[in-house]
Every structure is written in structure tokens, then in C-alpha cells.
Specification:
21% of the residues lie in helices and 36% in strands. It has helices spanning 13-24, 62-75, 139-149, 164-175, 194-201, 261-265, 303-323, 403-406; strands at residues 2-9, 30-34, 49-51, 60-61, 79-82, 84-89, 94-99, 103-114, 118-120, 136-138, 156-160, 179-185, 208-210, 212-218, 225-230, 243-246, 249-252, 256-258, 290-292, 333-338, 342-346, 349-351, 358-365, 369-378, 381-391, 397-402, 412-418.
Length: 420
């Protein structure tokens, strides 16, 4: 059985950032398992710009951003095994991995970082009636076809869902000569960044229909068209609002799901809202020595935040390994509770005795709130009040918590106050 100090599962932006920071923190024996044939993950097919503004203070494409991290991995001499698929992870940190070069083997680790990323929600999870004709793709699949394989899947396009990948593909398909007829969104708000709505839809005259969904698909062997309809507050289609769009392509951008089959198999506790591991301020899961970061933890809107968060997970894993799994001080755990308007928080708990000087508290809201405030309280004591012109579900919020504010606090509550 192979033995390593730190095993990182996934070589995307999260896995690379975690590996780099763990190496800089003094861990020499690191291995990164990546199932693709190169590092970078989803960034390799994201040829649009907008990456790196926070991390490198300049605008990069996805492959450029990935290349900068992969070069650091190479320069630091971190062991990377591409083409390696992790099949299972046990609670005592035994990993089963298979590759063409080395076959099936078991690896033992002192610590493990989960960085498997996320996948798209498929058509089967959407309950759309109709046949299964050629021409229906997830937006990410279409992105890979166009950007990596040089193949445009169709010319007359309807997009269901206004997540960032769907918005970006509306622009990409237009630039490739296709006609994007409409983007339909089930919710009364978009799930993507405001800048993507402006740059990918408004700039190209592509209509966005909120509170609409696909109610029928026409075509047996090949897609011929789709019918969309307006929905009420419960998501139920309203009779008489149907509109038919002839098309040969339907792209689905209906949400991302963290890849947590390995996590669940190891006994990691997964949150209902995020579908990702529940972690503390050190990105540690309930399994001793198992950490999680990136989109496997919760879906981010900016890769720069993934890198920053994953770097801290790498440092935490390094501290764990060097301490032999022991904390320097007794734990003093406070729970972070999402309340009015807040869907979830990461982290879910904070160890105030062993925390860093600052902790980034990240969360998403349930609805659009204008002229509101983010309020953090411990009992009746208000710790932080941060005024906001607007908060939206498509953009993750970030509040910096200082240790000095929490040392005398009990459990804390995060809520949205005011707003219309």
C-alpha cells in the first residue's frame, strides 16, 4: 500500500491552490489525483475572459488562469497523477485509485483534501415532458464541444436556465453564428452574475424570460422545437401562456451539483442546502483529517474565491499533518446559523480558540433584497452590520469576521434585515 502525507482528489483550481499552499506550508509528500489528462478542470474549456481579477489583478481567460497555477505546481515539484480516477475513500483515509499506468491500487494518507468540483444537473432531474431527441445538451457539454472540439451543436437555440454557464453560452453560440432565440428561467430572478446578463444577453439582444420554463419538447429523432410557459409562485405552468419556439438545440443551465459521492462514502456529513460537506473555519469535515474546498463544498461564482478558499484549506491540512492531528488549545466551538433570507453559510462552525485572526464567512441569499443590511448577531449583541444596496441569489456574499469579535461570543446568527 502506498503512503502519502497529503492526498488531494481533483486537479482543478481548488486542488491546485490547496496543493500549492500545503507545499509552501512545509508538506513535501503531496500527491494530486486528477481523472482528466491535464490539470485545470473546468477552466480548460472556459476560453472567455474575466478570471484572475482578484488573484492576479488582471483579466485572464480560464486556460490562462489554470496555466499560472499548474506552472506553480510544477515549479514546487508537487506530484501529480493525471488520468487517475479515485473510486472510493474510507473514513480512515484509505483511497482506492485506478489509472492506465499503475492499475488498481490502495493509497493511505495522513490527510485528504476533497476538491472534486461539481457537475451539471441533467435533463432527467428536471421532469420536462417529451421525447429524448438529438439536440438536447447541458450548457457545459455544449461549451466543451464548441471550445475544445470545434463543433457547434446547432443553429437555432433555446436555453433553459440563466446560470452563468448558460449566459456565457448564449453569447458563445451567437458568436459562432447561431441564433439564440430566448433564455427561459424558472425563478423570478437570474441565477447568474449581473455582468454576465449585461455582457452576454443585453449586448446581443437576447431576451431573458423570468418565471418561465420548458413544458414540452417536440421531435422524436431530432429536436424540432420547444414550448415554454410562464409559471406561478409555486413553479406550476400557467395555462394559456404557452409559446412555441422552433429550434434544433436546447441547452440546459439548471444548476450545479457538488460531486460528493466519495464524501458520502467516507461518512462525511453533507448539508441539505449546499449538497456539499459541512465544514468548520479550517475547512475540516466531521471526519478527522478530511478537508473540503472549492465547488465540491459549495458552488462559487468566481474562481478567484475558489483559489483563496482552497489555499486556506491547504494550509489547514498542513497544520493538521504537522501537529499529528492535535489542536494547540482546547476547542471552543460556536455555531453559525443562517436566518432570515440567508440560505446557508460556509463555514458552519468556528473554533474560536484555534481560529486565524480573520475568517471569511460566505453565504447566498434566498431572494432579491434592495436597500437591506447583512446583520450578524450573538444573542442580542450585534457584531456586524453591513449595509447593501442590493443582494441577489446569483452572487455570493462575503463578510470578514475578526477573531477579536468572536472570542467572547456564543453561537452567531447571520440574517438579512430590511430590503424590498
Amino acid at each position: 500500500m502506498d503512503k502519502h502525507s497529503l492526498v488531494i482528489i481533483g486537479g482543478g483550481p481548488a486542488g491546485m491552490a490547496a496543493a500549492i499552499e500545503a507545499r509552501k506550508s512545509g508538506i513535501d509528500d503531496i500527491v494530486v489525483y486528477e481523472r482528466d489528462d491535464r490539470l485545470g478542470g473546468i477552466l480548460n474549456q472556459c476560453i472567455h475572459n474575466g478570471f484572475g481579477l482578484h488573484t492576479f489583478k488582471e483579466e485572464l481567460t480560464g486556460p490562462e488562469y489554470a496555466h499560472r497555477f499548474s506552472e506553480q505546481v510544477k515549479e514546487l515539484g508537487i506530484c501529480v497523477e493525471t488520468g487517475s480516477m479515485v473510486l472510493s475513500l474510507s473514513s480512515d483515509k484509505e483511497i482506492t485509485v485506478v489509472s492506465k499506468e499503475k492499475g488498481l491500487r490502495t493509497v493511505k494518507a495522513d490527510a485528504v483534501i476533497l476538491a472534486m468540483g461539481c457537475r451539471e444537473r441533467p435533463r432527467g432531474a428536471l421532469n420536462i415532458p417529451g421525447m429524448r431527441p438529438q439536440g438536447i445538451y447541458t450548457a457545459g457539454t455544449a461549451q466543451k464541444m464548441v471550445n475544445c472540439e470545434g463543433w457547434v451543436p446547432g443553429k437555432e437555440v433555446v436555453i433553459l436556465g440563466s446560470g452563468d454557464i448558460g449566459l456565457i453560452m448564449a453569447r458563445r453560440m451567437t458568436l459562432e453564428g447561431a441564433h439564440v432565440k430566448v433564455v427561459a428561467e424558472l425563478m423570478p430572478y437570474s441565477g447568474g452574475l449581473k455582468r454576465n446578463i449585461v455582457q452576454c444577453l443585453d449586448d446581443y439582444g437576447i431576451p431573458l424570460k423570468l418565471s418561465h420554463t420548458v413544458v414540452d419538447i417536440k421531435g422524436k429523432r431530432k429536436l424540432e422545437g420547444v414550448t415554454i410557459a410562464k409559471v406561478d409562485g409555486t413553479g406550476t405552468p400557467i395555462p394559456g401562456t404557452e409559446e412555441y419556439y422552433p429550434c434544433d438545440t436546447l441547452l440546459l443551465s439548471c444548476g450545479l451539483i457538488p460531486e460528493n459521492e466519495l464524501s458520502v462514502g467516507a461518512g462525511v456529513t453533507v448539508g441539505r442546502t449546499t449538497n456539499g460537506p459541512i465544514v468548520d473555519d479550517k475547512f475540516s469535515t466531521n471526519i478527522d483529517g478530511v478537508f473540503a474546498c472549492g465547488n465540491v463544498l459549495h458552488v462559487h461564482d468566481l474562481v478567484d474565491f475558489v483559489s483563496e478558499e482552497s489555499g486556506r484549506a491547504g494550509k489547514s491540512a498542513a497544520e493538521y499533518i504537522k501537529s499529528g492531528g492535535k489542536k494547540s488549545l482546547p476547542e471552543r466551538i460556536i455555531t453559525v446559523m443562517p436566518e432570515n433570507g440567508v440560505r446557508y453559510t460556509v463555514p458552519s462552525t468556528i473554533d474560536t480558540a484555534n481560529m486565524s485572526d480573520t475568517v471569511h464567512l460566505r453565504f447566498r441569499v434566498k431572494d432579491i433584497y434592495k436597500g437591506c443590511a447583512i446583520v450578524i448577531k450573538s444573542g442580542d449583541k450585534e457584531i456586524i452590520r453591513k449595509k447593501k444596496k442590493i443582494v441577489v441569489p446569483g452572487e455570493m456574499e462575503d463578510v470578514l469576521l475578526k477573531k477579536e469579535l468572536l472570542t467572547e461570543s456564543g453561537d452567531i446568527m447571520v440574517a438579512i434585515e430590511g430590503g424590498v
